[in-house]
């Protein structure tokens, strides 16, 4: 399967490039980026072929692409790929509005190509084992979930300047856009139930610095059709000197007791001489690789991927409800009217 | 010498008595419906039994009320009417109106009313507050607090589970962290909460999550529950500021673990209390501080007004779980 990456705007692009190269069924043909400086930079860093326009890449007729553009551009690139009959794995959030996400789903359906949303946490070994515990019925009825997906300011994760994460037009928002969707998707998967109500409070106290024009702190409360409620702390509340980028945790409390899921806890602490600060070194399994492998397998086997465009759309609807709720300080019901 | 009497000789009464025994007061005695419990405390700490609250009040300068929540109102009023200083277990009262009336009555009577929000005296919580006060983590953005244990048991009269008496888990347990959130991040503008009590009225456990918006923009997330398998009890504390972060995850400070070859099932205690080996128990620190307030006029770490505000916060959280709407304060 011939694969490529559309845009290196997102900090995950380097990782996905590595994942594509590591998949024996994939012939990685390169990446397109219309930002010439960024294109040249990452071509030099990765040794990958750089296409200066998306058209030039499409002309090479890849079978599948991973879209790593700014969130607001996912739709245009997905539509371009779908029109050319190319399968799509899109970085999350699928889009910055439910309308755009819906258009992506429809474009790919119409073209008969796969649309997968990049929710790697579905491929994390600890979250998969937790799903098995829930499916076994051991926890019984789930009462509520206390979850976090906290992080640093995303641009701190990239040596190359990627400031668009804090531009409301290109990113769609800040911490709530970036860090609500993973947990929301996991819980939809765990419960096989949709979110019916969203309440959110957002603030901007962390990272009050030039170019950061979005919320950096947020607490979200979801209510599911099955009666369970779940809070998500989506804040970029980890300081620059934190030993890792952030994390994702879920504590599920139910009739049968407690399940704690802490997939990024598989770390050891490193106190290296010469390092400015202690660091946590992750040794757990590579969920991103498993996710890219699933995209490739789903396309090759002509079946739906484990995480679909529809899943991405549902998460985008939840994010839209988060902003609506936070603006009104009132709970908002889903589906949105 | 300050004369102190204890009302209610149960679980909390025993903790407070142990605290008073470390202060230079005269422990005059006890009033309780449970003579067996009084006898145990007298054997250990001295003092005598008072058949009525009135009789005890006549013999003391300070009364420490450790009775079930629904009894606080009448007892505090009675003590204030006799001009006695009062230490009262949290929550201050069962309703906001009662709480208001108690604060007013004590002010009018010129007596000190101290509400025993003991979490402010736990060393990790006190230290985190001090770190915030010193500005070490900058302006507070998001506070996260956890306090979940198992359902309290009692051999008889399990008033904890009787909402009319205790107010339920939110008023009895979650109030600790609602008080702490307000202490650390300031006055609260609104509370939104979800509870299994409202979502699934028949559920055997109790569990709730609350989101607080503070006046100066900070947010707090408070988790409380009687839902864990016994004897599990977890608390945690996190305060994120624009200049740094305080992290204290559940179980991260276990200074002593004892794992013995099984002899027989020890079982869980009736009521859970978070414990870490300390030379001075937080309840003793609390009572010693109350002694300093009463004997030497030290400013109380937790005022009557703080106790009232915590009560109102907890009641607002309960109201939100029932109406499904955020409640403004």
Task: Please describe the structure with a list of short key phrases separated by commas or semicolons.
heterodimer, A: 337 residues, alpha/beta, Rossmann fold, Dihydrodipicolinate Reductase, domain 2, 2 domains, seven-stranded mixed β-sheet, six-stranded parallel β-sheet, 34% helix, globular, B: 329 residues, 23% strand
Walk me through the topology.
The complex is a heterodimer of chains A (337) and B (329).
Chain A: E1 2-6, H1 13-22, E2 27-32, H2 36-46, E3 50-51, H3 54-59, E4 64-67, H4 74-83, E5 87-90, H5 98-111, E6 115-117, H6 125-135, E7 142-151, H7 168-171, H8 175-179, H9 181-191, E8 195-203, E9 217-224, E10 229-233, E11 246-254, E12 257-261, E13 267-270, E14 279-282, H10 287-300, H11 309-328, E15 332-333
Parallel strand pairs in A: 1-2, 1-4, 2-3, 4-5, 5-6, 7-10
Antiparallel strand pairs in A: 7-11, 8-9, 8-15, 9-10, 11-12, 13-14
Helix pairs in contact in A: 1-10, 4-5, 5-11, 9-11
Chain B: E1 3-7, H1 11-20, E2 26-31, H2 35-45, E3 48-49, H3 53-58, E4 62-65, H4 72-81, E5 85-89, H5 96-109, E6 113-116, H6 123-133, E7 140-149, H7 163-166, H8 169-185, E8 188-195, H9 196-199, E9 206-214, E10 219-226, E11 234-241, E12 244-248, H10 282-296, H11 304-323, E13 327-328
Parallel strand pairs in B: 1-2, 1-4, 2-3, 4-5, 5-6, 7-10
Antiparallel strand pairs in B: 7-11, 8-9, 8-13, 9-10, 11-12
Helix pairs in contact in B: 1-10, 4-5, 5-11, 8-11
């Amino acid at each position: 399967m011939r694969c490529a990456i559309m845009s290196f705007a997102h900090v995950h692009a380097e990782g996905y490039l590595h994942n594509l190269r590591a998949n024996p069924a994939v012939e990685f043909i390169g990446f397109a980026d219309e930002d010439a400086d960024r294109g040249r930079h990452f071509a030099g860093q990765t040794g990958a072929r750089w296409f200066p326009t998306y058209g030039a890449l499409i002309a090479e007729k890849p079978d599948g692409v991973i879209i790593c553009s700014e969130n607001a551009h996912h739709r245009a690139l997905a539509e371009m790929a779908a029109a050319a009959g190319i399968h799509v794995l899109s970085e999350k959030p699928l889009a910055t509005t439910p309308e755009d996400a819906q258009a992506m789903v429809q474009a790919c359906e119409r073209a008969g190509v796969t649309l997968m949303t990049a929710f790697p946490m579905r491929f994390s070994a600890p979250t998969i084992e937790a799903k098995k515990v829930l499916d076994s019925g051991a926890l019984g009825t789930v009462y509520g979930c206390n979850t976090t997906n906290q992080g640093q300011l995303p641009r701190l994760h990239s040596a190359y300047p990627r400031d668009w994460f804090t531009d409301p037009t290109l990113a769609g928002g800040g911490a709530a856009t970036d860090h609500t969707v993973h947990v929301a998707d996991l819980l939809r998967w765990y419960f096989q139930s949709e979110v019916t109500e969203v309440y959110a409070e957002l603030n901007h106290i962390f990272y009050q610095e030039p170019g950061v024009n979005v919320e950096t702190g947020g607490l979200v409360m979801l209510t599911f059709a099955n009666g369970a409620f779940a809070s998500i702390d989506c804040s970029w509340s980890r300081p620059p000197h934190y030993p890792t980028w952030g994390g994702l945790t879920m504590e599920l409390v139910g009739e049968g007791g407690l399940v704690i899921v802490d997939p990024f806890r598989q770390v050891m602490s490193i106190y290296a001489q010469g390092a400015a600060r202690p660091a946590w070194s992750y040794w757990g399994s590579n969920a991103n690789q498993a996710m890219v492998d699933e995209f490739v397998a789903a396309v090759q086997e002509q079946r739906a991927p484990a995480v679909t465009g529809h899943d991405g759309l549902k998460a985008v609807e939840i994010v839209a409800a988060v902003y609506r709720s936070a603006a009104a300080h009132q709970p908002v019901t889903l589906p949105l009217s | 010498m300050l004369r102190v009497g204890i009302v209610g000789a149960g679980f909390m009464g025993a903790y407070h008595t142990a605290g008073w025994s470390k202060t230079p007061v005269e422990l005059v005695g006890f009033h309780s419906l449970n003579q067996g419990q009084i006898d145990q405390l007298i054997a250990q700490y001295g003092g005598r039994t008072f058949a009525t609250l009135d009789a005890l009040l006549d013999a003391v300068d300070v009364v420490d009320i450790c009775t079930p929540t629904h009894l606080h109102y009448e007892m505090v009023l009675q003590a204030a009417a006799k001009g006695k200083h009062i230490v009262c277990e949290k929550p201050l009262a069962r309703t906001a109106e009662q709480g208001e009336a108690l604060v007013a009555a004590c002010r009018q009577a010129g007596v000190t009313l101290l509400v025993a929000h003991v979490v402010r005296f736990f060393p990790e919580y006190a230290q985190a507050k001090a770190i915030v006060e010193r500005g070490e983590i900058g302006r507070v953005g998001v506070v996260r607090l956890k306090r979940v244990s198992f359902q309290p048991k009692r051999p008889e009269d399990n008033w904890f589970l009787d909402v009319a008496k205790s107010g339920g888990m939110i008023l009895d347990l979650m109030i600790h962290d609602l008080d702490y959130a307000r202490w650390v991040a300031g006055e609260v503008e609104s509370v939104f909460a979800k509870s299994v009590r409202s979502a699934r009225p028949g559920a055997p456990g109790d569990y709730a999550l609350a989101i607080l918006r503070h006046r100066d923009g900070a947010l707090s997330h408070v988790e409380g529950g009687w839902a864990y398998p016994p004897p599990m009890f977890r608390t945690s504390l996190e305060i994120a500021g624009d200049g740094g972060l305080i992290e204290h995850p559940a179980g991260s400070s276990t200074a002593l673990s004892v794992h013995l070859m099984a002899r027989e099932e020890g079982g869980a205690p009736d009521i859970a209390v978070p414990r870490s080996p300390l030379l001075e128990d937080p309840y003793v620190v609390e009572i010693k501080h109350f002694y300093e307030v009463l004997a030497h006029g030290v400013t109380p770490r937790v005022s009557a007004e703080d106790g009232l505000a915590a009560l109102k916060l907890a009641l607002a959280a309960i109201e939100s779980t029932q109406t499904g709407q955020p409640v403004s304060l």
